[in-house]
Amino acid sequence: MRRRYLYVSLVLILFVCCHIILFGLVPDSATFPSNDVSALGERIDQLQRILDEQARNSARLKAFVDIELRKLRDLTTTTTTIASSPTSLTTSDVTTKSPAANANAQNQPPIAVLVFACNRPAAITYHVSKLLRYRPSAVQFPVVISQDCDSIPVADAVRAFGSNISYIKHESAQKAGIQVPSNHAQYASYYMIARHYKLALTHVFEKLNFSAAIITEDDLDIAEDFFEYFGATRPLLDSDRSLMCVSAWNDNGKAGLIDANATELLYRSDFFSGLGWMLTRRLWEELSPIWPAGFWDDWLRDPARRQNRACIRPEIPRTSMTNQGKVGASQGLFFSKHLIKIKLNERPFSFTQANLSYLLQDRYDADFINNVYASREVTLEQLQNQTTSADSKALEAVRLTYTSAKEFSGIAAKLQLMVDFKAGVPRTAYRGVVSCFVNNTRVFIAPPRSWTSYDPSWTGPPDIIEG
Ligand SMILES: *[C@@H]1O[C@H](CO)[C@@H](O)[C@H](O)[C@H]1NC(C)=O
Ligand SMILES: *[C@@H]1O[C@H](CO)[C@@H](O)[C@H](O)[C@H]1NC(C)=O
Ligand SMILES: *[C@@H]1O[C@H](CO)[C@@H](O)[C@H](O)[C@H]1NC(C)=O
Ligand SMILES: *[C@@H]1O[C@H](CO)[C@@H](O)[C@H](O)[C@H]1NC(C)=O
Ligand SMILES: *[C@@H]1O[C@H](CO)[C@@H](O)[C@H](O)[C@H]1NC(C)=O
Ligand SMILES: *[C@@H]1O[C@H](CO)[C@@H](O)[C@H](O)[C@H]1NC(C)=O
């Protein structure tokens, strides 16, 4: 950066010197022999040529200086793509030509894996090693690591991956001096995160021109079939406009709440869970102009943004949390009670070989609703009576009914499910229905069949605090 400033200073000095020299060449009018008209004409022509030449030089110099200044401004005020020594990072691929123009053997457009990093070197090393170990193709899943904080150990950890990844370093939020409302001083990290998302997504979609991206964070672990999952669900986002994203996370994906055999099972969900999720450039083009200064995930869950769209989520999570997450933006208690207990899938499933058309809204909604309301309605007591005596075989599906926020949270608490709502939507719910699997029984926690929409005034119990 210092070298850049020096360079631009030199250019400016050169620019000024040229003007002085050129003006110096213009003879003083007092030396003109005023009585020699033809000589005077010649002098005027000569003067005109000198001035024209000077104007051309000035315009060239000015254009040159403008370009250099613009480059410098880009580097300092927006983002910096750091290329270290030529042997380690090769960012030339991502900065000069669009990798999105490449296509893999199956003619699938590549999906960027955008990794958010800040100040946790051990986390980024573990996370990226996992991504590189499991990704089937570097062409189909280019990894782009985006760093906000100025942590040198993280930059070093990233460089160690050499040309297997590309790296973008933004001017840190601290240096950029972000605006945080005074009553939100304790939430400054949420403003930094929202700013980082905006910068990184702009880079991936607007500069690199990818048509889809998977967003991960350095504290996530991934399942072996993580890329199978996203690769296979990618086309659904194009063919079904009622889908907003695909997420690898299941908010109720704890051991004892999921069917460990159902490696193939996917759902539609009205709850945006994030934590390893995929979006298309189409969605980014919609969100980018209105992107918020803070709390972007709750902002996205607002009915005004979600617009009744759903995400795909798995029964068995394809992301989980590593211990690195404990020191993140989320509250410690939420981490130890919930996040760390989410169970990663251990038996890979070949999603790309499966027919996932059942997830398209046209087919899914009617089947899902029929399935849910065809199940036998039971009370919590009846469920407990049934399930305590279960052997290892899956039993008939049952349904528990709720008609209020309090009733939902009460049932959820008994079953150890997440009890809270965001914008009126319970975690993992689709059309109000939360599905789980306890004691070998598929259990639907469902509103009455006459349900039509969520009530944003349904909010979580006050003791649930999270990040
Ligand atoms: C990059 O990936 C290749 C092939 O997977 C591997 O051999 C190489 O060691 C990796 N380089 C780094 C710096 O991780
Ligand atoms: C960006 O990608 C789209 C296809 O997704 C392509 O039509 C378009 O030409 C690309 N734009 C640039 C500038 O490469
Ligand atoms: C996927 O399943 C649907 C519905 O069963 C069927 O109509 C469609 O042909 C199947 N697609 C493929 C490629 O098998
Ligand atoms: C549960 O089982 C016990 C003993 O088998 C029985 O007495 C009780 O009535 C049952 N409760 C319900 C709600 O079915
Ligand atoms: C599941 O079974 C255990 C005992 O095997 C029992 O204590 C528990 O209440 C049951 N859970 C539910 C939700 O019925
Ligand atoms: C899970 O699979 C195992 C082995 O295939 C089987 O014995 C068991 O009954 C299955 N459990 C459920 C709940 O389907």
Automatic annotation (TrEMBL):
Which GO-annotated molecular functions does the record name?
alpha-1,3-mannosylglycoprotein 2-beta-N-acetylglucosaminyltransferase activity; manganese ion binding
Where, by residue number, does the polypeptide cross the bilayer? 5-26
Which cofactor(s) does the record list? Mn(2+)
InterPro entries in UniProt: Glyco_trans_13 (IPR004139), Glycosyltransferase_13 (IPR052261), Nucleotide-diphossugar_trans (IPR029044)
Where does this one sit in the cell?
A: Golgi apparatus membrane
One GO biological process term: protein N-linked glycosylation
Q: In which pathway does it act?
A: Protein modification; protein glycosylation
Q: Which reaction does it catalyse?
A: N(4)-(alpha-D-Man-(1->3)-[alpha-D-Man-(1->3)-[alpha-D-Man-(1->6)]-alpha-D-Man-(1->6)]-beta-D-Man-(1->4)-beta-D-GlcNAc-(1->4)-beta-D-GlcNAc)-L-asparaginyl-[protein] (N-glucan mannose isomer 5A1,2) + UDP-N-acetyl-alpha-D-glucosamine = N(4)-{beta-D-GlcNAc-(1->2)-alpha-D-Man-(1->3)-[alpha-D-Man-(1->3)-[alpha-D-Man-(1->6)]-alpha-D-Man-(1->6)]-beta-D-Man-(1->4)-beta-D-GlcNAc-(1->4)-beta-D-GlcNAc}-L-asparaginyl-[protein] + UDP + H(+)
SUPFAM superfamilies, per this entry?
A: Nucleotide-diphospho-sugar transferases
EC numbers, comma separated: 2.4.1.101
Please verify whether the record's keywords include Lipoprotein. Answer: no
What Gene Ontology cellular-component terms does the record carry?
Golgi membrane
Q: How does it sit in the membrane?
A: Single-pass type II membrane protein
Top-level class of the enzyme under EC nomenclature: transferase
Its annotated function is as follows: Initiates complex N-linked carbohydrate formation. Essential for the conversion of high-mannose to hybrid and complex N-glycans.
Q: Which family is this sequence assigned to? A: Belongs to the glycosyltransferase 13 family.
Q: Extract the PANTHER family matched here.
A: ALPHA-1,3-MANNOSYL-GLYCOPROTEIN 2-BETA-N-ACETYLGLUCOSAMINYLTRANSFERASE (PTHR10468:SF0), PROTEIN O-LINKED-MANNOSE BETA-1,2-N-ACETYLGLUCOSAMINYLTRANSFERASE 1/ALPHA-1,3-MANNOSYL-GLYCOPROTEIN 2-BETA-N-ACETYLGLUCOSAMINYLTRANSFERASE (PTHR10468)
Q: What is this protein called?
A: Alpha-1,3-mannosyl-glycoprotein 2-beta-N-acetylglucosaminyltransferase
The protein's organism comes out as: Plectus sambesii
